Amino acid sequence: MTVYYTLTFMLLASEMVTFCILVAPLPYSIRKRFFHFLSESPIIAKIAYALKITFIFVAILFVDALQRMWRVTAEADIARTGGGAVGVQSETNFAARKFYSQRNTYLTGFCLFLSLVLTRSFYIILDLIHTQEEYAKLKQEIAKSSRTQIASEDQVKQITDLKKKLAEAEAKTRDYDILKKQAAQNQAEYDRLATEFNEKTGAVSNKRKD
């Protein structure tokens, strides 16, 4: 296998390892930090840019391998359907060339396909993490608003109790004023009756004469 197909195989193996890491059942906190690092790190951004250029060359290799596979298959079919006899060595040579062309086609094709799967899986998981973060924030806001509502309800209840107590105090004050007024009226009536009684009995006049 040539150097560029060896590098393509290494790239495919690294993609398989990366895919296993992405879909691994990691804890939420570790997954969150890991994906934030991948999406925000400038070093990872440069590596991703270099990989995009690499995948362009892999796509060129895929097209070349596909053309070679079609050409070898056509030559093998022509050799079989031709009138001349095909030797064992020639048939083995065609089979080997066909195998290598198919291998290179599958290698580059799976490398490109897995790159698309990795990219899509990464962004799906990243969107899921962002959605979970927004859900957690919304849940906290709802909890705060519910606590504020409960506190406001308690304040309303306290204000209502204070109003009731104030109304009761005002009622008692009015009752006290009424009793005080009645006591003053009774005292005035008592003084009037006492004065009349003293005048009739002459007690007041004798005191004045003395």
TrEMBL record:
Transmembrane segments: 6-26, 47-66, 106-129
Role according to the record: May play a role in anterograde transport of membrane proteins from the endoplasmic reticulum to the Golgi.
Transport in keyword set: yes
Compartments where found: Endoplasmic reticulum membrane
Coiled-coil regions, chain positions: 128-196
Topological category with respect to the lipid bilayer: Multi-pass membrane protein
Listed name of the protein: Endoplasmic reticulum transmembrane protein
Domain BAP29/BAP31 transmembrane: 1-137
Family: Belongs to the BCAP29/BCAP31 family.
Keywords, alphabetical: Coiled coil, Endoplasmic reticulum, ER-Golgi transport, Membrane, Protein transport, Transmembrane, Transmembrane helix, Transport
Main location: endoplasmic reticulum
